[in-house]
Amino acid sequence: MIIFGPQGSGKGTQANKLAEKFNLSHLETGQIFRDIAREDSSLGRKIKELNENKEMIPDQITVEVLRHFLELVPSEKGVILDSAPRTFGQIEPVEKTMQEEGRTIDKAIYIALSYEESVARITKRFACTKCFRHFVLGKDIQDSSENCPTCGGLIMQRGDDTPDGIAKRLKTFYEVTMPVIEHYRAKGMLIEVDGKQGVEEVFEDILRGLNKE
Prior knowledge:
alpha/beta, Rossmann fold, 5-stranded parallel β-sheet, 3-stranded antiparallel β-sheet, 8 helices, 48% helix
């Protein structure tokens, strides 16, 4: 399966729940690239620079990294791809890579969320600069000046979760990723759910969509 949704839609949470229920490996390219950006390597420095400039990762790098992580998943275990393919140009190479690994894309899930709700949710997201644990302001922490309850590290908002970063990321999603979603809709593979609901309600809608097939 592949899963899509604008920032703040909760697709990572839903991907984890689907992975647990169906024994899938959750491959989240966004997190993978954030991890690589912390490495002292030529690729790590390149990814870090792109992230700091709020630029998209080139398609070729995305596909190569995805291939590497697919090779690490046992052949008998299914996968759920989170944020790949992200551009229309990635569709063919990602699908080809999957086929070369003996896999097919069976379903695409789209968690729809309004622009306004995305912004409202993202601006509440913070992370520890030391252990990288994520927090939601008003839920996990009450004040952004608090220290991380796990390691005592400094809590900050990610650069791409600032107002300017959010605007750029959402613009990219609607202009670049929506055509990918429409591609899978046209192929009759898309399950669309309302992301404004609670986590469990969204999950139940996804399961209902899968069970209809």
